[in-house]
Amino acid sequence: AARNPGQPEYLQAVTEVIESLWPFIARHPRYAEHGLLDRLVEPERMLQFRVSWVDDHGDVHVNRGFRIQHSSAIGPYKGGLRFHPSVNASILKFLAFEQTFKNALTTLPMGGGKGGSDFDPKGRSPGEVMRFCQAFVTELFRHIGPETDVPAGDIGVGGREVGFMAGMVKKLTNRADCFFTGKALAFGGSLIRPEATGYGTVYFAQEMLQQQGRDFDGLRVSVSGSGNVAQYAVEKAMALGAKVVTVSDSSGTVVDEDGFTPAKLAELMEVKNHLYGRVSDYAERTRTRFHAGIRPWGVKVDVALPCATQNELDEQDARTLVENGVVCVAEGANMPSTLGAVQVFERARVLYAPGKASNAGGVATSGLEMSQNAMRLSWPREEVDARLLGIMKAIHEACVRHGRREDGSVSYVDGANVAGFVKVADAMLAQGVV
Ligand code: NDP
Question: What is the ipTM for the molecules in this complex?
Answer without folding.
Answer: 0.97
